[in-house]
Amino acid sequence: MSVDISDFDLAEAGAVLAAESARFASFGWMRGTSGNLSVVLARDPLRLAVTASGHDKGELTARDVVLVDGAGAAVAGGRPSAEAELHARVAALTGAGAVVHVHTVASVAVGHRSPEGIVFRDVEMLKGIGQPAHDVEVTLPVIANSQDMTVLGDRLEAAREPRMPAVVVAGHGLYVWGQSPRQARHHTEVVEWLLELELARR
Amino acid sequence: MSVDISDFDLAEAGAVLAAESARFASFGWMRGTSGNLSVVLARDPLRLAVTASGHDKGELTARDVVLVDGAGAAVAGGRPSAEAELHARVAALTGAGAVVHVHTVASVAVGHRSPEGIVFRDVEMLKGIGQPAHDVEVTLPVIANSQDMTVLGDRLEAAREPRMPAVVVAGHGLYVWGQSPRQARHHTEVVEWLLELELARR
Amino acid sequence: MSVDISDFDLAEAGAVLAAESARFASFGWMRGTSGNLSVVLARDPLRLAVTASGHDKGELTARDVVLVDGAGAAVAGGRPSAEAELHARVAALTGAGAVVHVHTVASVAVGHRSPEGIVFRDVEMLKGIGQPAHDVEVTLPVIANSQDMTVLGDRLEAAREPRMPAVVVAGHGLYVWGQSPRQARHHTEVVEWLLELELARR
Amino acid sequence: MSVDISDFDLAEAGAVLAAESARFASFGWMRGTSGNLSVVLARDPLRLAVTASGHDKGELTARDVVLVDGAGAAVAGGRPSAEAELHARVAALTGAGAVVHVHTVASVAVGHRSPEGIVFRDVEMLKGIGQPAHDVEVTLPVIANSQDMTVLGDRLEAAREPRMPAVVVAGHGLYVWGQSPRQARHHTEVVEWLLELELARR
To answer: Partner of A66 for a Cys bridge, out of A80, A143, B32, C167, CB 3.0 to 4.6 A?
Structure first.
């Protein structure tokens, strides 16, 4: 049971993650050095490329990436964020091929008002996460924050809704996932749009 | 009664729609893969170029376009959005040469507060849709959403105001039209500006 | 008493106005084809270069400019906006070398709440229009809109405050002026910042 | 006790400050010609490169920089802003290697509501300024504005919180510092994000 991920594969993943990060940073969703992105490179055992910690997310290069295992520990590359463990857990739990973690003002503001979860219904934009635009309530779970990634992962696992490829971490930000970096991007944009609508509707 | 639209004409239309889409996407009005744009290429019978479904609207190329007939069915190119039918109906109904469909937060937020329609009056910006800046009420209709494009088209036909080249679809977004892609763009910008003013005026 | 303004001078002014327009358009202050900019080219008699009417303000070229006289009538170039008359009047009245007219949401929203004028005090940003940051009230006048540029000019002349190089036209937008296009830009940014602060302070 | 800072060193610092300024200007945080940035070039005696006064902060070149001493007086280059004195004082007081002063709408709006200081707690983003994300209150001080930089510096010195590398000047804007221009940038982004969250939470 071995995986053979070449430096080339890792750099290719790094280039994709750098481009996606720059995009989210341009929206103001990764201020400071916040947030991190990942993509699954192997399943058995699990291997993810995760953006390196401590860098400006608008200035990543293809090399600012770390290969981690299913526990979020570095296999190759530099220092991963502690949050790499949660990326790996989301990938294992949901089968997602890519995970986005961003710090958006709307997610924290709306999560603060709705600590029991944010309910969406009758919005066409829900189709962007594969849900019907009519008559069905879709809940975006809100979980309490923690610095212990196992605790946070347990909360995410307990709270997550199959209809919703995202969770708000209270006082923190958004985790969103999809089959690929592009689908994870689109899911992130859709969820953030729904949250911005909540803010505008007040 | 035949129309002869060359691949070249279609690609040219695709290039224009890709540029217009990238512009609207940069404003955050086409998050995820939402929205679609069209331009009329022939009138008798009706033929429109419509942006292809499922793509990121900030990353379209000249080839990401579908030729559809007056019922929104594909004549050439890939898979059109189901909403192509509504584009065709708007073009037939209004004589417009171009139709813009975007998902803006302001249109959904204001439409939610004013389900009977949004009344504008005494705003200079109304001149941007050919209306007087003084003394005349201009209503932006709000229609209920539907996944059945015939139902949605019937609602649009019943509700539309001759003074207003746009309709809000509740919980969904905006349809706007004009003689050309550029005029449709300007009408879209004007209507969205009016909606953002409503939000700011609260 | 003749003025000799070469095509070259006019094109140079057009290039400056196109760049300034593109900047304001990127901020969303010239949606549709709204707004216009001018720069004084001669004083005796008065000659201004004014942006041409009906164009997208993010896509002007150096040739999209009209030379007008002190009444706003075209001397050379295409069709000026009717508002060119007001630009000329502002230049004559204030001695300004450049005039900016933009349609910002904040100016219309705040003008609607404060039809008697908007009072600023104790804000450092006032120094950006040459006013003290402490203890002095500075009023941004709000005048009623009109399509008659002579009426609008009379209102502007009656209402304007020597301390404030700007006027809000209710339901319409902002007129701002300065010695040069760059200073008019900075005055515009300062006044708009003050208006956005008013919106945020609510 | 002499310092030998070459023209080359100063130009290099100027290039960094120009790039950082352009970044902040693109966010709308340096409207008009407001704000200024500095970087420490020597400690004994103190020498800082400060952006030149009166320029558009989105258009600085590597030469638009002034070398100042610990009192903010020019050693080389053009005219420094009066605020250079405060930059020097912050650098001396905190040991910071770089200081950012920007005029953000959120800092003035939130400072107006919370003149006794703005308290943050239980927000992950606090980690971006080296603080814990849980259980600890971190206060962003708000000090009264003054045109006398000695008075303003005394207020900053009296009010500053060791946990917070930033101060709001009421009716004015933000001062933020860090070890390097990049860290000062990240601290600025984090503090502004926290202020925008306060606005959104209302």
So the answer is: A80
